[in-house]
């Protein structure tokens, strides 16, 4: 049994691709850390779960989608030499649920005992970094997006698309919301920090709709970015990050913002 054989049987190529891209990028970055830094599995799993909880634990997500997501996550972690007891337990339960509800093929049902044994076998450690996913964003200037971190929603405006459409540069409006805001709530709202300090180039912010359900569309071709002064000459235009580290960046931005 190979990882790809299981993933194909899930019949969810868009979800699997997006999750695989997140993990490959994040695992690769972790492997570049110095030997003195911790490389525990939770360094990878916890931020990935924080991003994908919006799909894996959401009440408004179709049950079969949640189940496929848990299985895909367990399989991909195993592919990248990682394991997480809670994720594996969810995946095993999800396999039973998918079979009970006859969601997938007969081949998946027949091979489920083998798949379960495979997922509970210790994975082989990676000997080289995963291949870096290609970078191409579908977002466009003027898009307004809401990003959920924990129970709060933070809203950003797409300022530009950089590096031949590789990633968007977004700027956050001030404040957070209990649900995705309306354009009326954003009208006249300042940036979270002035002079470009709330702007980020986000690698991996590729899809809208977002397969992880963390990023939601608020508006397209919007004409009113967050209000504030432009960066001074010699100051950086924006901070580079990626879709996983962005969660930490948002938390820090929220803590330092006085708006």
From TrEMBL:
Instruction: Specify the protein name.
Output: Uncharacterized protein
* Organism field: Micromonospora lutea
What taxonomic ancestry is recorded?
Bacteria, Bacillati, Actinomycetota, Actinomycetes, Micromonosporales
């Amino acid at each position: 049994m190979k990882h790809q054989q299981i993933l194909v049987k899930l019949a969810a190529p868009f979800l699997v691709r997006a999750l695989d891209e997140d993990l490959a990028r994040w695992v690769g970055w972790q492997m570049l850390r110095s030997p003195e830094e911790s490389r525990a599995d939770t360094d990878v799993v916890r931020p990935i779960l924080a991003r994908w909880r919006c799909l894996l634990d959401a009440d408004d997500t179709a049950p079969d989608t949640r189940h496929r997501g848990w299985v895909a996550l367990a399989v991909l972690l195993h592919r990248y030499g990682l394991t997480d007891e809670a994720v594996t337990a969810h995946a095993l339960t999800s396999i039973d649920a998918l079979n009970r509800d006859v969601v997938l093929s007969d081949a998946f049902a027949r091979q489920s005992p083998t798949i379960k044994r495979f997922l509970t076998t210790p994975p082989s450690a990676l000997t080289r970094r995963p291949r870096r996913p290609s970078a191409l964003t579908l977002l466009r200037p003027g898009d307004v997006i809401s990003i959920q971190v924990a129970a709060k929603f933070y809203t950003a405006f797409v300022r530009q698309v950089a590096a031949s459409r590789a990633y968007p540069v977004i700027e956050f409006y001030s404040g957070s919301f209990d649900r995705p805001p309306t354009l009326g709530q954003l009208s006249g709202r300042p940036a979270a920090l002035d002079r470009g300090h709330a702007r980020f180039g986000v690698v991996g912010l590729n899809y809208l709709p977002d397969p992880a359900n963390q990023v939601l569309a608020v508006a397209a071709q919007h004409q009113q970015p967050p209000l504030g002064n432009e960066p001074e000459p010699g100051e950086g235009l924006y901070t580079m990050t990626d879709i996983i580290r962005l969660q930490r960046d948002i938390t820090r931005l929220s803590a330092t913002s006085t708006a």
